[in-house]
What we know:
By secondary structure, the protein is of the alpha/beta class. Helices cover 37% and strands 18% of the residues. The chain has 18 helices and 19 strands. It has helices at residues 2-17, 24-29, 85-88, 124-133, 146-157, 180-192, 205-218, 233-238, 270-277, 286-298, 316-320, 325-328, 331-337, 353-375, 395-406, 411-418, 420-425, 504-530; strands at residues 45-53, 62-70, 73-79, 92-95, 100-103, 105-110, 136-142, 165-169, 197-201, 221-225, 243-245, 302-304, 379-380, 443-446, 462-467, 470-471, 484-489, 492-497, 500-503. Strands 1, 2, 3, 4, 5, 14, 18 and 19 form an eight-stranded mixed β-sheet that branches. α10 (286-298) crosses α14 (353-375) and α15 (395-406) packs across α16. The longest helix has 27 residues, at 504-530. The protein is globular, with a radius of gyration of 23 Å. Zinc ion (ZN) binds at residues 109, 111, 142, 385.
Amino acid sequence: MIRSSVLRLSAAALAGAAAVAVGAEARQTSAPPQTPAIHARASRRLVIKNAMVIYGNAKPPYGPMDILVENGRIADIAAASDASSLRTSADAVIDAAGKYVMPGIVNAHMHWHEERQRGIPQPIQYERNLYLAAGVTTAREVGGDFDKSKRWQAESDAHTIVAPRILVYPFVSKGRTGAPAEIRAWIRDIRQRGADGLKIIGMDRDQLEAIMDEAHKLGMRTATHIAVEETTAKDYAELGVNSIEHFYGVGDAALDGIQDFPPEMNYANEIHRFGRAGELYAQTDPERLHKIIDLMVAKHVVWDPTFSIYEASRDLIRAKNLPWFRDYLHPSLEEYFKASTENHGSYFFGWTSNQEAKWRRQYRIWMDAVREFANKGGMVTTGDDAGYIYSMYGFGISRELELQEEAGFHPLEVIEHATWNGARLIGMEDRLGKVREGFVADLLVVNGNPLENLRLLNPYGTDVMLLNGRPASNYSPIGPGDHVQNVHGGGIEWTIKDGIPYHVPTLMREVKDMVAKARATRRPATTAGHQ
Length: 531
Ligand SMILES: [Zn+2]
């Protein structure tokens, strides 16, 4: 019984999927995608019909369902039916037959950039479009231009700009002298000016005690990038930090003593810094690593590993040759990524196989540590930290999901990290992170089933197998006479934020246009430079 109903459902899903086999990229090479009338417009009653639902908390998907969105909220979810009153009363409809609907993604670690390479402006809409196209409906900015980000936050909340919802966590300033009293005064001031939380980087123990005490008094959340310093994850966990970003600090707390740096080590030199960082986890003591993980779990610290931002260190050739660079890489980023002693994260001068091998080993131990942390009850989130190290906005978060799958998580768990865990991290679990009645309508309509292939969430799309013209699992039996094709498909079709649907092929076409325009205006200058 169960088996036959599963077969019936998947047959229905496949029939619907035939129409959506060709994703954003492929369509652009033929005819430019039409922008549907409902793009970027609020409607009174929006219905998403025939959707398979991925709820957000790792329970299995179910459907097909009709979802009613009213005044930006999920008002009703009912079994899909042509006769339902949901459909007849709708003033806008998205047909999700053969598609999956999941909550919008919380990018827990990002930065807004209006310029990367100095002197080459990068329109802020470029980054906004890319994040929405990758399904990011909420962006936690952990360090940026505070006043600008607060303005963009208000504009995003009012829907006067096309952008994800924004949370602003400024870098904690050490003030003029770094005295704890100065730091406390700075925190009180930034709280008054509307900081949603704090980003901590590089602190001594007395400074950290002051920051955490002040943050707790004011009810502010905290995220930290622990550098190599006197404080490690042990100090941060003991003092009650909310989230640890990246990998630093955790590995450092699990060493016998300190990392074995060579005498010529210069921490101000990024080649030294990122090269040696890749040796950290191989030097950890496994028993000590279990212990610090236990402490982080006991203290309810969230781990936001940002696997994708360091990936170039383990595979530079891959990182430099990503297929979406051709049409979507802005010249400001392109220039910034090149080896440079000026630009943060552009440390690839003569990068060696030896360094990559060490980074690959580091990833294996680090990923196992994150998996162990989650198995013991720790909460993992997803962030991309893009705009550095060959990682592009949006594509980075999509890759982060793939790397969390590589770390051993089930795709349902990975999506939970990206949605429900993200909502809990930022304290919005009463309204975000689940496809639930009463929750904010932050929803993604995905071309296909992301549980089969997380790469379907990539704004560029991915390879899809067609069997006799219809998308099919590549494990499907192929008989004589069957017609098998590999086509470009997938992608998110709609990113819905606060009930407003954004058409992803349209967002990506706009990005492509911005890049083409920026390249065209740069070309004469480049030619002159070569003469
Ligand atoms: Zn960052």
